[in-house]
Design brief:
The complex is a heterodimer of chains A (about 160) and B (about 725). In chain A, about 35% of the residues lie in helices and about 15% in strands. With about 160 residues, chain A is an alpha+beta fold. Chain B is of the alpha+beta class and about 725 residues long. In chain B, α15 packs across α16. Classes of the chains: A alpha+beta (about 160), B alpha+beta (about 725).
């Protein structure tokens, strides 16, 4: 057991745990934050993506020790129903989901993209989301939603 | 003597309502001002809950925000069997519409009594019933006076399409906000007080025997509550999820297995299907009154591989024993009552000792491991001392132990006359059965049932009858006006690779074969494939979708190097939605689908954006099946047990999809979830031929299969 401190959705957080435990297991277990989803456990689907210092990262194969002193944003920290992130508003406006299991990871990948590239093209969005899998076929709606959010963030 | 004058047909209740006639089992009014709607169908990511809420809100004239949808449970929901086959709007939607129409009449009568005005001058607005002179009451005020605990009676007339405020409009999905804000909604994210975590130990080997199990490694893991072993079924229960994972890892190290039934050669799959013992059924046959004269016969065969459901979420369930012989189960199964029957068989318990409640999972696309993991949870929870246990499958188990969509071999022969017209058509298909769902046989369909010390036999998949849309033979009867035909299905009686219902059952394979073959005939005749199809279709709705898709795609665009266009059409199950697709592809060695232009006729589109979403999704999923997907195996095990070994279409590979929904507000609503798969598959294959002159008859259309087809062509 080691105490590891990081900033989670803006809140200083201490965790006493095995430093080799996956970040996803800590988030979903001890911290009760179930927005990031388990999909494969092998960094192959993106369902568990969280933002670590502005980069979208698969939490399932990120060891706890590696996030010491970092800032982590999960889908819960991106925005809320009361104060939604423009991406979340856009996903609802475009109805950019079917089952929605992959959506939290995709929103995180998209948020990281818009931080480094506020005005992406259609194909830049697709490349940024290429490591996120969606099985329902909602891809084009999601791309439209990301472009809509980007436009809104540039000229609100 | 005079014939009795036939009376007009007596009105009948929709089948789901006739089977579950108590009105209050569908609709109730809560004192807080809500309408509680309780369908037997479940949300599997298709948006059905929203469409059903729209129907209820419309018929009762309440704001949709007042409608609270109840998840299906054997504790009280109507029994609507399974949520499958694109039938939820037809079944549940019609029942709810009819029940609400009658309930509305009952409340108008009660309001009339209370307010002292005639019912026909009363109006309802957001549940408030008002009449002349500012008199008013509401559903909620009257709820105690109107007994809904009685059977529905036929005769109430639902609103006409013009009177509906919501149906026909794109209402936003009720479940979207939770999912977009990461609020717990999936069973995977749900926790019960005192909940433990379970994991099941399964070998990579198919139908393996557990020959030895050393438990000491797992026993040393912190948090372990129990190790469960019953024959070849083994698993762990732990206080924490991490503990369960670690204990499973340790248990795996202590396990020895021997292999089961040998799997076929994956490279000879289509030939293998034809050599297996099979039950043959004539699906349809007709003979021309004046047989045409055969000049030549065309023969082709087509094949598709096993296809995985490959849900993004591994299957999950929770179970809790409340006493020695009563158990509660939470599941993302498509049929809570059907799962309950199978559980009762395995557990040897009366049905009413088992409660099965639905919770949302990820999209399942048919019968995946949802039901299997429910039995796993029930078995592991036996060792949990009355505490609830949540069980989650691994990605590898999801990709290798869940049932697959069945591989198919389809042979079509057509006799052509001197003018090149089809005078006889013969379609033979070989495939495992396309369904082994729970609750339908005298043996359970659940995986763990075959692993117990006293095992149940492994169920061999069967096919639903043609009257229910068929299974392997789904869409094997052409919608085209050929003068004579014979359609025969050969269902395998062996099943080394486990199969069950995957979206569209056999329709994807059959439509691929029929529509490819038609293209081949049209090409032989030098006839435009769209014109050729239109000439053989007498159903105007079929013609309309083909014309609409062709028009929207500017059929047929001038050819450019390395691009091709193809058409595909089907009416799903020959009784459901009509769908025509024009595919535009590019490529030489690796095919890229650039654009799918689709026209669809689903009758009344209750939620048009929901329909478009389903069609788009189906089209993209079908593109993934066509370009990439094939379950891989060697003689002992399924080898495609990760996303690396079972790749699916990625964002950068997804085509543009354009959908036109035909306006048919007065037609019966038809489901949209499975309409696009077959036509998209065929349209892509036909576009590949258009671009390259190569006919790929073995799916998927990968580089390897393309090269093999080129060698066959040259």
């Amino acid at each position: 057991m080691t105490r590891i401190r990081f900033r989670l959705n803006g809140v200083e957080t201490d965790v006493d745990a095995d430093p080799d435990a996956s970040l996803l297991s800590i988030l979903r277990g001890q911290l009760g934050m179930t927005g990031p989803h388990f999909g494969c456990g092998a960094n192959e689907c993106g369902a568990c993506n969280v933002m670590i210092d502005d980069h979208a990262v698969a939490a399932c194969d990120t060891p706890l020790w590696s996030v010491k002193d970092k800032a982590i944003t999960t889908i819960e920290g991106l925005g809320t129903a009361q104060a939604p992130h423009p991406l979340q508003r856009a996903f609802i406006a475009e109805q950019a989901l079917q089952c929605g299991y992959c959506v939290s990871g995709i929103l995180i990948s998209a948020a990281a993209l818009l931080k480094r590239n506020p005005a992406p093209t259609d194909s830049e969005v697709r490349i940024a989301l290429d490591r996120n899998l969606c099985r329902c076929g909602s891809h084009n709606r999601m791309v439209r939603a990301v472009l809509r959010a980007a436009a809104e963030m540039i000229a609100p | 003597m005079t014939e009795p004058v036939p009376s007009p047909a007596a009105p009948k209740l929709p089948p789901s309502l006739a089977a579950n006639p108590v009105l209050s089992s569908w609709i109730r009014f809560s004192p807080e001002g809500h309408v509680i709607v309780s369908p037997g169908k479940v949300e599997i990511g298709q948006g059905i809950v929203t469409a059903l809420a729209q129907i209820a809100a419309d018929e009762l004239d309440v704001d949709i925000a007042r409608v609270k949808m109840v998840r299906a449970s054997t504790a009280g929901s109507p029994n609507e069997g399974v949520t499958s086959g694109s039938l939820s709007v037809q079944h549940s939607g019609r029942a709810i519409r009819q029940a609400c129409a009658e309930i509305r009449q009952m409340f108008l009568a009660a309001a009339s009594d209370r307010l002292g005005v005639a019912p026909d001058v009363l109006a309802i607005s957001d549940g408030t019933i008002s009449g002349p002179g500012n008199v008013s009451t509401s559903y909620w005020e009257l709820a105690d006076d109107v007994a809904l605990d009685r059977h529905a009676t036929p005769g109430a007339v639902p609103k006409s399409s013009a009177q509906r405020a919501l149906a026909g409009n794109s209402v936003q999905r009720l479940d979207a906000p939770d999912k977009v804000f990461g609020q717990p909604r999936f069973i995977h994210d749900s926790a019960l007080p005192g909940m433990l975590h379970g994991r099941v130990l399964r070998s990579e080997l198919s139908a393996a025997t557990l020959t030895a199990l050393k438990e000491d490694g797992a026993r040393a893991i912190a948090g372990l509550v129990a190790i469960m072993r019953d024959g070849n079924f083994a698993g762990v229960v732990s206080e924490t999820e991490t503990g369960a994972e670690r204990a499973l890892l340790a248990l795996r190290k202590g396990a020895a297995w021997s292999g089961g039934e040998a799997l076929p050669d994956e490279n000879q799959l289509s030939d293998w299907l034809k050599t297996q013992p099979a039950e043959s059924t004539i699906i349809a046959s007709k003979t021309a009154a004046q047989p045409g004269e055969k000049k030549l016969t065309m023969r082709r065969h087509y094949a598709r591989p096993y296809i995985a459901h490959a849900s993004i979420a591994p299957s999950c369930a929770m179970a809790q024993w409340t006493g020695r012989d009563r158990v509660r189960v939470w599941t993302h199964s498509q049929g809570v009552y059907l799962l309950r029957s199978d559980l009762a068989m395995v557990l040897k318990l009366p049905l009413d000792h088992i409660t099965v409640e639905h919770m949302e999972g990820a999209g399942c696309y048919g019968h995946n491991a949802a039901d299997d993991v429910a039995l796993d949870a029930v078995l592991l929870a036996k060792a949990a001392g009355g505490r609830p246990v949540r069980v989650l499958w691994s990605r590898a188990d999801e990709m290798s132990h869940a049932p697959f969509g069945a591989a198919m071999r389809i042979e079509i022969e057509a006799d052509l006359d001197a003018q090149g017209e089809i005078v006889d058509w013969r379609h033979n298909l070989w495939s495992n059965g396309h369904t082994a769902r729970p609750g339908r046989a005298d043996q359970p369909a659940l995986l763990a049932a075959t692993e117990l010390a006293k095992p149940f036999p492994r169920m061999i998949s069967t096919n639903p009858p043609q009257a229910n849309g068929g299974g392997g033979d789904r869409n094997s009867i052409p919608l085209y006006d050929f003068p004579s035909w014979r359609i025969e299905s050969h269902r395998l009686l062996t099943m080394p690779v486990r199969t069950s219902a995957l979206r569209t059952l056999g329709a994807q394979g059959n439509v691929f074969a029929i529509e490819s073959f038609l293209d081949e005939v049209a090409a032989e005749r030098n006839e435009d494939p769209v014109a050729f199809r239109l000439r053989h279709l007498s159903d105007p709705r079929a013609q309309d979708v083909i014309r609409a898709a062709a028009k929207r795609a500017n059929w047929k665009p001038a050819p450019r190097d390395g691009t091709g266009h193809g058409i595909g059409f089907a009416r799903y199950k020959n009784t459901g939605a009509y769908c025509a697709v024009v595919a535009q592809i590019e490529g030489a060695e690796d095919i890229s689908v650039k654009r799918l232009t689709i026209a669809v006729d689903v009758g009344e589109a209750v939620n048009p954006d929901g329909v478009i979403n389903q069609i788009e999704g189906g089209a993209i999923q079908a593109t993934s099946w066509v370009l990439k997907e094939r379950v891989r195996f060697d003689t002992t095990r399924i080898t495609s047990n990760s996303w690396t070994d079972y790749p699916i279409l990625r964002f950068s590979e997804v085509p543009e999809v354009e959908v036109e929904v035909m306006a048919r507000p007065d037609m019966e609503p038809l489901g949209a979830g499975e309409a696009a798969h077959g036509p998209v598959t065929a349209a892509i294959a036909n576009a590949v031929f258009d671009a390259l002159g190569v006919r790929v008859r073995n799916l998927p259309i990968t580089r390897d299969n393309l090269i093999a087809a080129m060698e066959l062509t040259s």
